[in-house]
Automatic annotation (TrEMBL):
UniProt GO molecular function: calmodulin binding
SUPFAM superfamilies xref list: P-loop containing nucleoside triphosphate hydrolases (SSF52540)
Protein name listed in UniProt: Uncharacterized protein
GO cellular component, one term: cytoplasm
SMART domains, per database record: IQ
InterPro entries: ASPM, IQ_motif_EF-hand-BS, P-loop_NTPase
Compositional bias annotation for Basic residues: 208-219
Keyword Cytoplasm among record annotations: yes
Region named Disordered: 208-233
A Pfam family of this chain: IQ
Keywords: Calmodulin-binding, Cytoplasm, Mitochondrion, Repeat
The organism's place on the tree of life at top rank: Eukaryota
């Protein structure tokens, strides 16, 4: 029994000694463990806070996107309805204008203007206009022809007056005149489709005939009436 008691006492003493040693060791490392636990708690709380903040941010962005989409769809729907209303209003206005125009035309044709009488009047006016235009055109052509003939006569008279004193430029039996080409009649100078030499010859003959006629009616000139009476006495 004494041996058992001794073993028991030694065991109890060892347990007590180990307890105090472990307690002292724990007390010596308590501050380090407290710091470690505090850091672990801070990290965990930060992780939880960041996760919560990330969740809140994502949720806020989704809510904002949904609200912006909702507001955008509302504005688009409002603009679409306004555009449809404006298109319908323009269509109704155009239809009303067309209906009013057709009704005014119908009432005007029925109560104010006789279409067939108006058509006959317009046809008569057009026919008179055509007749007047034809008459004016005929008169214009006639006056133009008269003016052309008058210009030709005046030009011929002027040309005849000019060529009446150019008989010295006519061709002779030995010398060709300046208006006659040595290469033939085709290349000779012409006026009014007649060779110039013929004009000069005709004008000279007419001038000579007029001079002879005047000389016959003037007394005192050779060949005049006074000369014949003197010869008779």
């Amino acid at each position: 029994m004494a041996w058992v008691c001794a073993v028991r006492e030694r065991a109890v003493a060892r347990v007590v000694r180990d307890y105090f040693e472990e307690t002292a060791l724990a007390e010596s490392s308590r501050l380090l463990e407290l710091r470690a636990v505090t850091r672990m708690q801070a990290w965990w709380r930060g992780t939880l806070a960041r996760g919560q903040l990330r969740l809140l941010n994502n949720s806020a962005r989704r809510i904002q996107a949904a609200y912006r989409g909702y507001r955008g769809r509302q504005r688009a729907a409002d603009q679409r309805r306004s555009h449809v209303r404006s298109l319908r209003r323009a269509l109704y206005n155009e239809a009303a204008t067309l209906i009013q125009k057709m009704y005014r035309g119908y009432m005007s044709r029925r109560t104010r203007v006789n279409f067939y009488a108006r058509k006959r009047y317009i046809d008569e006016v057009a026919e008179r206009s055509q007749a007047l235009r034809r008459a004016m055109q005929a008169e214009f052509e006639q006056r133009k022809e008269e003016a052309r003939e008058r210009e030709q006569l005046e030009a011929a008279a002027e040309f005849s007056g000019i060529t009446s004193n150019l008989h010295h430029l006519l061709s002779t039996a030995t010398q060709a005149g300046i208006f006659k080409s040595p290469f033939g009649e085709v290349y000779s100078a012409k006026a009014f489709d007649i060779p110039v030499e013929e004009h000069i010859a005709d004008a000279f003959r007419a001038t000579r005939a007029r001079r002879q006629q005047r000389a016959k009616h003037q007394p005192g000139r050779p060949g005049g009436p006074g000369t014949k009476r003197a010869a008779a006495t």
